[in-house]
Amino acid sequence: MPRSAEPTRERLVDAAFALFTENGFARTTVEQITRRACVSQRTFFRHFPDKEEVLFADDDRLLPTIIGAICADDEPVAAEELMADVLGGLAAVMTPDRNRLRARQQIVDGDVALTGRELAKQAQWQPSIAAALVERGFQPHTSDLLAAVGFTLFRASLHEWLLDYDGPTLRERVVTALPDVRAMLDEVSTPT
Question: At which residues is the DNA-binding region annotated (predicted)?
Fold first, then answer.
């Protein structure tokens, strides 16, 4: 995207978030968003296919961040260590946007269709992430499981972090959760 388009895209996102917060997602129209951003509806549709996608505008930069972190090195590495690096790096990228992420999550959580769209978007990423893990040396079946566990762990940590301003950072939550997942798996796999 040309540099000159970034301010317009950002204005559209800011206008949409403000209107979603003021009026609710369902009652906000593309026309209202474009009016608030001082652009035409045609300009809106050059940037976004629909108003729902405005909520996920920042996600476009996250998948390349994840893939880049997985493929940053080709040395063998333990799965837990790689997940800590990749998810910790993702946390670092997302941390400056905490207020917007918090507002977005409140909007998404308030609409079943948006929650479904959020999960569908993440599910679309999973094969790409699994393929990067295979490229890194993990077995295909293991890669699928690692991608699924990574999404679940990160999503849970993100939701906790967005609700708890006084607690640990997002990165700390993610890194702390990894051994907890291992311990839970050990506990589940050991019959009592």
Answer: 29-48
Interacting residues of 182 by C-beta distance below 8 A, sequence separation 6+: 80
Instruction: Give the DSSP letter of residue 136.
Output: T
- Over residues 98-124, the pLDDT tens digits come to 998 999 999 999 889 999 999 888 888
| Cα-Cα end-to-end distance for the chain | 57
The CATH number of domain 5-53, selected from 1.10.287.70, 3.30.750.24, 1.10.10.60, 3.40.50.2300: 1.10.10.60
Tell me the three state secondary structure of residue 25: coil
Is residue 2 predicted with pLDDT exceeding 50?
no
User: Looking at domain 57-189, which of 1.10.357.10, 2.10.70.10, 3.40.50.2300, 3.20.20.70 is its CATH number?
Assistant: 1.10.357.10
